[in-house]
Amino acid sequence: MDYIKKLSRFIIPYKRFAILNIVCNVFYALFSTLAMLSLMPMINVLFGESEKVYVKPIYKGISDIKDYAENYLNYLVTTTTEADGPQRALLYMIILIIGLFLLKNIFNYLALFFITFLRNGVLRDIRDEIYQKVVTLPISYYSEKKKGDIIARISGDVNMVKNSMLSVLELIVKEPLTIIFAIIAMFMISVKLTFFVFIFIPIAGFIISRIGKSLKRKSDKVQREQGVFLSTLEETLGGLKVIKGFNAENRFYKKFQESTTRFYNFSNTLLNRQNLASPTSEFLGIATIAALLWYGGNMVMVEKTLSGGAFIGYMALAYQILTPAKAISKASYQVKTGNAAAERILEIIETKSVLEDKPDAITKTSFDSEIGINNISFKYDDDLVLKNFSLEVPKGKSVALVGQSGSGKSTIANLVTRFYDVNEGNIAIDGENIKNLTKHSLRSLMGLVTQDSILFNDSIKNNLLLGKEDASDEQIVDALKIANAWEFVEDLPSGIDTNIGDSGGKLSGGQQQRISIARAVLKNPPIMILDEATSALDTESERLVQDALENMMKNRTSIVIAHRLSTIQNANLIVVMQKGEIAEQGTHEELIASDGVYKKLVEMQSFE
């Protein structure tokens, strides 16, 4: 139950509900025991075995409470029988039993009522924290993780922990108290018979603990496999066009089926082990009851040391122990499975971001002079992608990065926006190392347009509002006009309120990209980073998007990563990259005149 300590901070805001649950469970356990004890006087009245007491007993203190309660009940039965007959006494006993059972069930409901707020509150808060962690962890974290596994953790694993937490409260309060009160009452009825029962309890406990030993490991396998098939599903939904285009439906179906078959086998093993708990504990309980019937029956019929009513009441109490004992064994299994789920949740929550802001990080609100990329080196895995790379981007200038795939162009965009940190050297804005700035203020200075136009299943308006939350409709329309997008948006059924579908699927590639540009325009940042913003477009769309980009880049500092060289001929500086280093740099005319790598690239694209 170590994870309960680690997750206790989620419980603390709801501690009042936990306290109320515990109080109600105390009363539930008390009235459960009293309800069973109340069967004894009823049976005694029924069979005429009640002891005749004509003098009202006097209460002499807590040590005398058992005798006082017994004598007082017998006094009531005696006086009622003498005055109104045994039927009236039996009716009173029945009303007493109904009242006690009613109180037991009222407190049981109240305990569940209060625990519901705790369970669902903890569930919500854990999910909120995991989601917050998901969006704050660096992008590098997800290059090693499957998205489906993250989804499995935030849905199934959190739910399992919620159920496990309820089990813990039952494990430490409700069921143990019910057993303790019942055992106290059993000792009060017969010490000898209770010691006889205790011979069987360690044996039963040992057998049940053996069953639950491997549950955590088996549960972990089930949860991991759930992450695998959810990842397959997520990849399938994201790549349906490719799957269908390459007739790969059967291949992906087979991959999914293999995962669900493993999940099926792991789940069967786990559930069969869990399901063994209830019948095992019940059988052990019935075996105990059978031994009691033999031993206790001997005390009633042969030794005459126990009345029939007391024996029936004792049997009811012994049987009452079975239900909480079964619940404890079941809860202990849930705790073990919850432990495995909690470890997977805590793995995300406790992951430290390598890109955390420094405690004294600076909030930068303006861009004044230049971006300095100073002798940086960087690698994603083992091989360096950038080697001793240096570049200065003055304010108001446009710098283009060109080169073959794998030369490190897009890596520059990832490092300037601090999606990753450099391994050596530094990147500075106005002379201040970006590691000393808050990530929020750094990215507030930048607008990003990527090769893949990342849009969300929402309206055009809400997609643009990511750039500026408080923008008016007029500002949105102006941004769309600058991005050459208003011409098609105004013709849509609901204009800017039109839903564009999952990933903007209702729009063409060029339209999606122009919406992405409009989003960056609306943000109106001093620095613009364009990462191959036109490479995935046809010629006509490229021309419209290129016009939109030129409109946006006027009087703005820009880092343009380009595959199509025709789009960056007007840049103030063109940097040609090869294998993470600068091969040559200059204006378009200078580079053509130098007859180097750039000219060859231009000629190759012209030939294409």
TrEMBL record:
Membrane-spanning intervals of the chain: 20-43, 89-118, 168-189, 195-212, 283-300
InterPro entries: AAA+_ATPase (IPR003593), ABC1_TM_dom (IPR011527), ABC1_TM_sf (IPR036640), ABC_transporter-like_ATP-bd (IPR003439), ABC_transporter-like_CS (IPR017871), P-loop_NTPase (IPR027417), Type_1_exporter (IPR039421)
Keyword annotations: ATP-binding, Membrane, Nucleotide-binding, Transmembrane, Transmembrane helix
Name this protein carries in UniProt: ABC transporter ATP-binding protein
One Pfam family per UniProt: ABC_tran
Membrane topology listed for this record: Multi-pass membrane protein
CDD domains, per the entry: ABC_6TM_MsbA_like (cd18552)
